[in-house]
Design goal:
There is one protein chain. This protein has 178 residues and is an all-alpha fold. 78% of the residues lie in helices and 0% in strands. It is built from nine helices and no strands. Helix 1 runs parallel beside helix 5. The longest helix is centred in the C-terminal third of the chain and has 43 residues.
Amino acid sequence: MRLSTVLAGLCLGATLPCAVFAQSAQKPAPTTAPDPALVKVARETVAQMQGDRTATLSAMAAPMVGMMQQLGIKEQDKAQVLVQEVVMPTLTAHYDELLDMQARGFAIVLGKDDLQAIATFYATPAGKHLAAAQPQLAQVQLTGMQQWMQSVMPELQTKIVKAVQAHGWVPGGQAKPH
């Protein structure tokens, strides 16, 4: 997953319900630490997947301006100053930490052969094009996710209310007395 996708998802709460639903479908991660050699392979793979560090970080600037505005800095010029002076330097300084976290996750979920195959793909022209296109693709995916959630939200709300009523639950988690 691209850094811009992660941060844009954090900025926009419309995708949160999807994350909640996805959590239950995932198998729990093992509690043991992954093999350091496998983490090293995963780190190299993740770095290739991210593509050019500067381009990846630069693509995040506009979504971060929106986040500043959501946090209360309504004037776009002031939000842009904060992004350039505070947010982007901080994210740049901690970028390797993100790659390390992602690498540990990849090493837990994927084996060495898979990681090497993924790295091989990202070394090809098509893989390099995919890595370069990730900021735009992430935005398209985020927009699609938001539109999808907005389209199913009324149905979900109606069904959830009916299910809560059918179970006899009342707001606050208390069951109605029988």
